[in-house]
Design a protein that fits this description.
Oligomer: heterodimer
Number of domains of chain A: 1
Distance between the termini of chain B: 25 Å
Helix content of chain A: over 70%
Radius of gyration of chain B: 22 Å
Number of strands of chain A: 2
Strand content of chain A: under 5%
Shape of chain B: globular
Largest sheet of chain A: 2 strands, antiparallel
Number of helices of chain B: 23
Structural class of chain B: mainly alpha
Strand order of the largest sheet of chain B: 1-2
Shape of chain A: globular
Number of strands of chain B: 2
Order of helices and strands of chain B: HHEEHHHHHHHHHHHHHHHHHHHHH
Strand order of the largest sheet of chain A: 1-2
Helix content of chain B: over 70%
Distance between the termini of chain A: 40 Å
Structural class of chain A: mainly alpha
Chain lengths: 495, 508
């Protein structure tokens, strides 16, 4: 005899769903508008998306951390911070559609609808500790993202989308298998119950293998999403094929979301003292940051260099996650909060300089030579790009330095001095390829006889670059606030 | 003027930003006026500095990142005061003597930014603020070498940047560890140096932390075998770049040893006396020999810089007040003398576009004033008595004699080998018959050049004859530091080795 379950609307705690619903409703609204009247200008959709995202942001800001919807939803500090990062990056991304040159994908309203669905997917993904809902979130977001990449409508963007799709599908498979093993060993797919079950059983002999095996399968899935070694090979090609802003977006938002989930999952193992998981993560992280740095050194294209560099940054952050301390976990989000503006700024600078034809090389859109002697052609552009590069290299007082400082400090606190030194040395290697661009821009003579490389410049793009630049340069003044807020949120969520 | 230190640090920054608006043709004059104001400000600081007190003065403090213990914390004592004055002086003189023609506005702005970072390094009392200026100083220098340098400029500038950047990241890990130790003892985060001084580490920790800081500082000094970036940087840099690099940037490294390593890790420092002394003596003798083998005038002076930095390092690790005060004095003297020598090489390079000594000969008859100034600076560099170079070198040697007479004698050869390569340079270039017909048409120093050299010559002789006004404040602060170190030291060897003539009470 099944006892009936009494559910009140209050218990469902619907406000937790409001942010995602806003994004979804916004996406549907855009589709409806397109049905009613077609051939509307992209600026309309951009602004509508901005309004939807703004409402979304406000809704997230209004949430008090809680559980809801039959405990399926878990909106805690991690979730709120991740949602903030996702939405703010999206708001910086969407205006980049307003280029002066016409690019194919932005003329479709479906682009914006899919984009908003994707945002909702990411929000779902970070707002639950149920492995199935996480899966649904990942897939919603990823499927939308594959399409967005393909809409760039060049042969290499189809290739990129397909590559990302197949790799994503593989990762989904691993995720499903990992979840199944977790379910088999613990009898639950709710992470808090998994944790309880594991804390009782994980120490018994035969269980160790099963538990570790499940964790490894999940780790492989997330290694794909976070482009960790050896599952990173798709990333540079996909970044190259996607449009520059989307590549910048991909280097931030999917990773923030994946880190939030990875934090929820792997923190369990690290907390319970399953050292093998921690070791695997550390090794992956160290190899990722080092190898990606080496690869970035030999790239001939700035965008591919930035792709490898963001892989390296992800490795850097992954190491912080393995520390298992509150400081390390907070470091993940602090790093991305600072990195986001700088990296998106750098990709936007590439976007501004994008020409529809391959003007400077047979293969690449943004070879280094394109930027040679930029200081003589467009001094402001060169200075702005150089500031982004220096920030990415971790030169103080620019934004990424504070993230690096905090994560390295977390590593030292946790007793991982060697890790901190490896991080330091990696930053030094990384400085070389960032400097390479600076050297091209400042110290070399122009290779091509042009008076502009900023074909694509428009006011909205300049505003976005301006915001990114201001945040990058003045981070020393608000790092205090950011640190206090994120640290409080993360420690309140129990990580 | 209680904010004098902040004014000193940020005035060049603000002026540099405003400098973007100044017209190209007037940029030079703008730069000179700003540098002059900055120099006057630093003189004002000196005048108002209480020479009797050994403690930090003009302190400013406000939090930047409260939870993490990072504060904007600056102050000045006898050790840093003259380095700041020297920095502003050399920037001014360098700016006056600058002969760069292309993109002069960019150069002026870059130098002003560089001046901010240099002054900031010497005034910072918070490790992160120190690190911030330390790293930031690389960027303008990269640009100066890379944009106005010789044919290999890009390679040289990147080598310079990466070397120093790598070293300082290791140092950063050390800093984070110290901060964490402070946190685990007191429960509060702090990167303030004065807080850090209070920490007592056991010997093992001291050793590793000393090494971490050592990597950062030693590359900057540069100590053998990390010195290979320097000849490239000097060889390719434009005159102004070499002047600032030799006069100020190298001093950051030795200053770091005095400010961080010694007071924080007294036992490890004592433990490391022998290895560092050996490295220093290798630097002194080996690079002096390399200097002798050079054909390029500028390379001779570049290698002689490394040799002199060896003397400075030796003095710092003498662990007594003569040695350390002598070292700091030697930093000033080397700053002025090597700066002047690089400028002098710049003078002849501008006229002939070569720096190879064999192209010259008999310059003394063609350019008597130039030969005179060069001669004085050269003597000061060698360490002739009654010049500025003698005082520091002599004090260092006396100081280190108490540690090890044999090593001191070896180091003393620096005066002899120094004399050999310097006089050889002088002989080849200035004496003998004029071998190169074209050189007969060379003009002697013009008024602008005289105007930049005469003050330096005056300082070289003034401080050579009467160093007391500078030496006393330095010595006060050094004495205080030594007695603090002696009290803090935990091993008996260190207690014996550190010679403090004052007791801690007097120092306060």
């Amino acid at each position: 005899m099944v006892t009936p379950i009494q559910v009140t609307v209050q218990e469902l705690n619907l406000p937790l769903l409001v942010p995602m619903l806003i994004a979804i409703a916004g996406g549907l609204g855009i589709l409806v508008i397109d049905l009613l009247k077609s051939n509307l200008d992209k600026s309309l959709y951009v602004m509508l998306s901005m309004i939807v995202l703004f409402a979304d942001l406000l809704a997230v800001a209004g949430i008090t951390p809680n559980r809801g919807f039959f405990d399926l939803m878990l909106v805690d500090g991690v979730s709120i911070i991740s949602q903030f990062l996702v939405i703010v990056t999206s708001m910086l991304f969407i205006p980049l559609a307003l280029t002066s040159k016409r690019f194919h994908e932005f003329s479709y309203p479906e682009f914006f609808a899919l984009f908003l669905f994707m945002v909702a997917g990411f929000q779902f993904m970070v707002s639950t500790d149920n492995l199935i809902l996480i899966f649904v979130g990942i897939e919603t977001a990823s499927l939308a993202l594959y399409t967005l990449i393909a809409m760039h409508n060049r042969s290499n963007s189809f290739e990129a989308a397909l590559k990302y799709f197949t790799m994503g599908a593989l990762a989904a498979g691993f995720y499903a298998m990992g979840s199944a093993v977790v379910y088999a060993t613990t009898g639950s797919i709710e992470l808090w119950q998994v944790k309880e079950a594991l804390s009782i059983s994980s120490s018994t002999g035969s269980m160790v293998i099963a538990v570790t095996g499940g964790a490894v399968l999940l780790l492989v899935a997330f290694a794909f999403k976070l482009s960790l070694f050896p599952f990173h090979t798709w990333a540079p090609d996909v970044y190259e094929g996607a449009s520059a802003p989307l590549a910048g977006y991909m280097s931030i938002v999917p990773k923030v979301a994946a880190f939030a989930v990875a934090l929820r999952i792997f923190d369990i193992y690290i907390d319970l003292g399953v050292e093998s998981v921690r070791t695997i993560i550390l090794i992956l992280a160290v190899i990722t940051m080092t190898l990606a740095n080496m690869m970035a050194l030999v790239q001939e294209d700035v965008k591919r260099m930035l792709a490898y560099s963001s892989i390296s940054h992800a490795g850097f952050v992954m190491a912080a996650l393995a520390l298992g301390t509150t400081k390390g976990n907070a470091g993940v989000f602090i790093y991305y909060a600072l990195f986001m503006f700088t990296n998106l700024g750098a990709f936007t600078m590439l976007w501004i300089s994008r020409h529809k034809k391959l003007m400077y090389s047979d293969r690449y859109d943004h070879p280094y030579e394109k930027f040679a002697g930029l200081i003589k052609i467009m001094p402001m552009g060169a200075v702005v790009m150089a500031l982004f590069m220096l920030s990415l290299a971790g030169v103080p007082p620019f934004s990424v330095f504070w993230g690096k400082l905090f994560i390295m400090s977390a590593a030292v606190d946790a007793g991982y001095i060697k890790l901190a030194i490896i991080m330091g040395l990696n930053s030094a290697i990384a400085a070389y390829y960032y400097l390479k661009l600076v050297v091209y821009m400042f110290l070399k003579e122009p290779v091509f006889n042009t008076d502009t490389i900023y074909y694509n410049i428009s006011k909205p793009l300049m505003v976005i670059v301006g915001i990114a630049l201001v945040v990058t340069v003045t981070s020393v003044f608000f790092f205090d606030i950011l640190l206090t807020y994120i640290y409080a949120m993360i420690s309140a969520s129990g990580f | 003027m209680s904010f004098i230190l902040s004014v000193l640090i940020f005035f060049p920054l603000v002026a540099g930003i405003l400098g973007f608006i100044v017209d190209k043709g007037s940029a030079r004059v703008y730069g000179i006026s700003i540098a002059a104001v900055e120099f006057l400000l630093s003189l004002w600081l000196w005048m108002n500095f209480d020479a009797k007190s050994a403690s930090m003065q003009f302190i400013e403090f406000f939090p930047i990142v409260k939870d993490f213990g990072i504060n904007y914390y600056v102050g000045v004592d006898g050790i840093s005061l003259f380095l700041v004055v020297m920095t502003t002086l050399m920037t001014l003189i360098g700016m006056i003597s600058m002969t760069v023609k292309n993109e002069i506005k960019n150069m002026v702005v870059t130098i002003l930014f560089l001046e901010m970072t240099m002054v900031g390094v010497f005034l910072a009392l918070d490790a992160i603020v120190f690190y911030l200026f330390w790293e930031l100083s690389l960027v303008p220098m990269l640009y100066i070498i890379g944009a106005w340098g010789g044919p290999l400029r890009v390679y040289a500038s990147i080598k310079f940047f990466l070397y120093t950047f790598t070293g300082s990241l290791i140092m950063l890990v050390g800093m984070l560890f110290v901060a964490y130790s402070f946190y685990s003892i007191t429960g509060v985060w702090s990167f303030a140096l004065t807080d850090w001084y209070a920490l007592k580490f056991d010997l093992n920790y001291q050793f590793w932390l000393f090494l971490a800081f050592f990597v950062g500082f030693a590359i900057k000094v540069p100590m053998f075998p990390f010195h290979t970036w320097l000849p490239y940087a000097h060889g390719q840099a434009p005159t102004i770049g070499s002047v600032i690099l030799a006069a100020v940037l190298l001093k950051m490294g030795t200053y770091g040893f005095v400010r961080f390593s010694l007071p924080m890790f007294p036992d490890a420092s004592v433990m490391m006396i022998l290895p560092i002394a050996v490295i220093s003596i290798i630097m002194i003798i080996y690079t002096a020999m390399v200097a002798y083998a050079q054909e390029d005038m500028k390379q001779v002076i570049a290698y002689s810089s490394v040799s002199h930095m060896g003397i400075i390092m030796l003095g710092i690790f003498a662990m007594n007040s003569q040695g350390i005060s002598g070292s700091i004095f030697q930093m000033l003297s080397h700053g002025i003398v090597s700066g002047a020598l690089f400028m002098l090489v710049g003078v002849i390079y501008d006229r002939t576009h070569t720096k190879i000594m064999s192209n010259f000969g008999g310059l003394a008859t063609i350019m008597p004033k130039y030969a005179l100034v060069f001669g004085i600076m050269l003597m000061a560099s060698v360490g002739l008595p009654l010049t500025i170079g003698f005082v520091g070198e002599f004090l260092v040697l006396i100081g280190f004699y108490k540690v090890s007479p044999i090593l001191t004698i070896l180091a003393g050869t620096s005066i002899i080998v120094g004399a050999i390569y310097m006089l050889a340079l002088y002989k080849k270039s200035f004496f003998g018959a004029v071998t190169n017909e074209e050189n007969k048409k060379l003009k002697d120093l013009d008024n602008r050049e005289l105007f930049s050299f005469i003050p330096l010559v005056a300082i070289v002789i003034w401080l050579g004859v009467y160093p007391k006004p500078v030496l006393t404040p330095i010595d006060n602060s050094v004495q205080a530091m030594l007695s603090f170190m002696k009290e803090k030291a935990i091993t008996p060897e260190a207690k014996n080795m550190i010679i403090a003539t004052q007791t801690a009470k007097e120092a306060k």
